[in-house]
Amino acid sequence: MIPIFEPETEAEAAGIIATLVRNDLTLKIAGGGTRSGLGNPAAADRILTTRNLSGIVSYVPAEMTMTTKAGTLVAEIEAALVANRQMLAFEPLDYRGVMATAGEPTIGGIFATNASGPRRLTAGAARDHLLGVRFVNGAGEVIKSGGRVMKNVTGLDLVKLLCGSHGTLGLLTEVTFKVLPLPQASATIVVSGLDDAEAAAAMAKAMSLPVEVSGAAHLPESVKGRFVGGGLADGPATVLRLEGLSASVAVRQEKLVATFASAAPVTVLDHEATTTLWREIRDVKPYADGTQRPLWRVSVAPSVGHQLVAALRLEAGVDAFYDWQGGLVWLRMEADAEGDLLRRYIRGLGGGHATLVRASDAVRATTPAFEPEAPAIAALSARLKEKFDPKRAFNPGKMG
């Protein structure tokens, strides 16, 4: 049984890390445990969890900023925001369904993994909303970077660097981030019957119109029935979300319907159904299937996502759907992970990133979960690791 540390203060966490590093012991950093299988298997001597580093430190609704300790539950944060009609605009996805994990997502885990949902298309990723951090480095030193105001940065931007580092550079203890108002109304235009290539063209057209689409996804026939209780119209569904003031949404909805009505059947989802649909897209509901079939999260240019899937289907069993206008492809492999094949096709289509989100332990042990870095990037990463965590104590092996 691996010993688990549960510090209640930042100073206590720093002391634990300093002692462990001094004794050449490695450390697995954990939050709510909802992403525990993400990344390559990492063996560590000790576990440190942020579950007791919890609580909202400061929230000023008028300034649309919040500061919380890293172990604060996302549910607690969202409840405070909803009470003031505000939200985390980057829609952090919840991995519990696809990874079959328990626990509760924490805000530290969200920023440590840069977890971003459908609105990333227009609102940006989690890292774009992070204003400041406090963290403990591999020497047990507490470091503060950034603050409550977004401003230009010269030199090394530690805030952005820590976001998405999966706990390999330091232990996040406190985060400050911006929030945005909840939209008054929303609607989803559903264009039915388009194949993957036609859907990519339709989404590109919608994004080029002055209607402020905040979400664009394509749900092929194989997955369409698993959304909103099977309530979408017949045929593959290309879905376009509109948000904002009620009158504005109505006008933009009319314009989008008119744009596509002559080419394919078009239906409209109301606010409630829209909320359900995009939460299910965010949380990858079709592949929350209780299996360990390999699941990939692939980011490519929106225009080539469907080409990647078509090429893979010639050589492997693949199921897929598309978010971010086609630039985010969720791929479930029916048998093998096919990591080499997948990454070869990604390079051939102009590049991108593939992250293995889920697989059996045997597959995870032999397949790189993250895109192997180019030599120049690997050298830079090594230098950063040397500065932040010289003894390689944090999450060893997590990212490769």
Descriptive notes:
The structure is a single chain. The chain is α+β, with helices and mostly antiparallel strands. The chain folds into three domains: 133 residues, Uridine Diphospho-n-acetylenolpyruvylglucosamine Reductase, domain 3 (2-Layer Sandwich); 98 residues, Alpha-Beta Plaits (2-Layer Sandwich), CATH 3.30.70.2190; 87 residues, Alpha-Beta Plaits (2-Layer Sandwich), CATH 3.30.70. The chain is built from 14 helices and 18 strands.
Using the 3D structure, state the CATH architecture of the largest domain: 2-Layer Sandwich
Number of helices: 14
Query: What is the average per-residue confidence, as pLDDT, rounded to a whole number?
Result: 93
Q: What is the third-level CATH name, the topology of the largest domain?
A: Uridine Diphospho-n-acetylenolpyruvylglucosamine Reductase, domain 3
